[in-house]
Design goal:
This protein is α+β, with helices and mostly antiparallel strands. The protein has helices spanning 8-29, 69-73, 77-86, 92-95, 133-140, 145-156; strands at 3-5, 51-52, 60-61, 98-100, 107-109, 120-121, 130-131, 184-187, 193-195, 218-223, 226-229, 267-269. A hairpin with a 2-residue loop joins strand 10 and strand 11 (226-229).
Length: 325
């Protein structure tokens, strides 16, 4: 089978995933496994026995039968066991190159080899979040339509960018891990980041007493050098002690149900001679009821109607963190 050279962006993402895995293995070798808060499941926000996606999303998932996460992943218990044994897990988002925008939560093509990729990944090696150009432009330049339009064009053209997760939303300064007051507090559901010193008083480290008391929203010493939070845009479900766990969306592909190994070589199959499975097969079925609103991209709205708070009417995808009672 004819082979082609990977694009520069494909190589960058592959190297990024490899570096992430290398650091993870170093931490495990040093005894800093999930019990010390390095990882939590991207679906249920809990730790335990986790399996890392070998793709570019850098997320981890529960594949054991003690959690309901395998149902969300669309796997049977036997399929999950086989994946754990082979250690070649690739989530459907990475398999089909369909990732969620971290602002609006809707799926978009992340295949930069196609003519029209829709979502683009932040350039930071420790950040695996994807964004629509318009969504991230509105987040970074809320007061300037001209800057929004210019930045949107740059991102859509493939220029590398830094997403809103790398500066405090209050003081607009970057992280300083050597200064405790400048430690980042990172929301798992949306692009909201505070310094420890800038945290709002209603983001509590301890819950208020009483059946209707304010819920805990912040956990320190659970992430390396960072604080895990659920910001005030997201309602806490008392039973879960987290927001609703409906924030992860996978491509609806019923043909390929098993996961395949991530490409580990720079040579990749020629697109002209190999079928393209990067996108899910289109299944013509009636749209789901009200829940479909969660997967609607806010970037289709005009600029003058943009309001940051309206972007977070529902919980949206977050990065890996640790939730511990």
């Amino acid at each position: 089978m004819a082979r082609r050279k990977a694009t520069a962006e494909e190589l960058r993402r592959l190297n990024k995933a490899r570096e992430f895995k290398r650091k993870r293995n170093m931490l495990k070798a040093a005894g800093a496994g999930p019990d010390k808060g390095e990882d939590v499941c991207a679906i249920c926000d809990d730790g335990g026995d986790l399996t890392c996606c070998e793709g570019c999303c850098q997320r981890v998932f529960h594949l054991d039968n003690k959690h309901n996460c395998i149902k969300t992943l669309g796997l049977t218990i036997e399929e999950a066991k086989n994946i754990i044994e082979k250690e070649d897990f690739v989530c459907k988002n990475c398999q089909y190159k369909q990732h969620q925008c971290f602002v609006c939560g809707s799926l978009g093509s992340s295949d930069d080899t196609s003519s029209q990729p829709e979502v683009f990944q932040c350039e930071h090696d420790d950040c695996a979040r994807f964004y629509h150009p318009k969504c991230v432009a509105q987040m970074l330049y809320p007061d300037s339509h001209h800057s929004q339009e210019l930045f949107e064009l740059q991102v859509a053209a493939g220029e590398r960018f830094s997403c809103p997760m790398h500066e405090c939303i209050v003081c607009m300064e970057v992280e300083n891990k050597n200064d405790k007051s400048m430690q980042f507090a990172v929301c798992r559901r949306c692009p909201t980041v505070y310094h420890r010193k800038c945290l709002p008083s209603d983001i509590l480290f301890k819950p208020k007493k009483g059946p209707k008391g304010a819920m805990r929203r912040a956990w320190k010493n659970m992430l390396p050098d960072r604080i895990l939070i659920f910001c005030m845009k997201h309602e806490i479900v008392r039973k879960l002690q987290t927001p609703a766990r409906n924030h992860i969306i996978f491509p609806e592909a019923n043909v390929l149900k098993t996961f395949q190994a991530a490409p580990m070589e720079q040579d990749m199959p020629d697109q002209k001679e190999a079928p393209d499975h990067s996108l899910p097969v289109q299944i013509h079925s009636p749209p789901p009821p009200a829940a479909s609103d969660q997967n609607q991209c806010c970037c289709s709205s005009p600029f003058d109607s943009f309001a940051p708070s309206s972007l977070f009417m529902h919980p949206h995808p977050g990065s890996c963190g640790w939730l511990d009672d």
